[in-house]
Amino acid sequence: MTPHPQEQSLIAAYRSGDLRAADQLLRHYDPLFRRVSIRFTHDPADGDDVEQAARIGFIKSLATHQPPKLLSTHARWDMSHEIRDVLLSLRCVRAPKWIDEAVKTATRLGVATDSESMVETGIVHPTVRPFDAPTTVALSSASDVSVSAPDPTDTLSIRELLRSLTAEEQNVIDMRFWTGHTLDEAGAQIGLSKERIRQIQDQALLKLHKRLTSTGARKAA
């Protein structure tokens, strides 16, 4: 995708605290977010969440991008990483195409679709890594995940972070990331368009990211 003609100056302005500069970049790269998210989306119902994950990854990349590398190239890793996290949480990571084809073949032949049955019947080669529930990648149970409690001296409380947002931004962030409303649902409840909800959300995320990165810089100093 063609870089924004003022890309480097806008990145510098955002790092100096100008959120409008980042908003210009987000608008310019909107087609990229849609294109990247389409590659990963398995269920159309998850499209908004996947696209927003791409936007969050892009916002993160604004803090680490270094020329002469193109911003769009640099941002793709952060975007993909955020999307994969979201997809795992939604249990809808796209399965490789060969898995879908194997399942279709097994179903047509009346063979069970677990990995052992498909290997025994020759549908899947025995050297292929075994798989089950092939159309999704499920999360481990909560007991399998070890999460360390954050050090309170290194983090801001959620309440502190939200104070930097307007009441409208807080409401949108709460609906999108806490109660799980889609853009359409949030817009219908608040009385705004889907695109306006996205704009408010982007603005709020930019503020939160700026607050977090500036706090981290102060602690490192």
**CATH top-level class of the largest domain:** Mainly Alpha
What overall geometry do the principal axes of the alpha carbons give? globular
Helicity, in percent? 55-70%
Gyration radius from CA atoms, angstroms: 21 Å
How many separate domains?
Answer: 3
Count of β-strands: 0
The residue-averaged pLDDT reads 74
Low-confidence regions: 92-96, 127-155
Q: CATH fold name of the largest domain, please?
A: Rna Polymerase Sigma Factor, Chain: A
- Secondary-structure element pattern, one letter each: HHHHHHHHHHH
Oligomer: single chain
Quickly give the CATH architecture of the largest domain.
Orthogonal Bundle
Number of helices: 11
What structural category arises from helix and sheet content? mainly alpha
N- to C-terminal distance: 37 Å
Strand content: under 5%
* Fourth-level CATH superfamily of the largest domain: RNA polymerase sigma factor, region 2, helix turn helix motif
Q: For the report, how would you describe the main beta sheet?
A: none
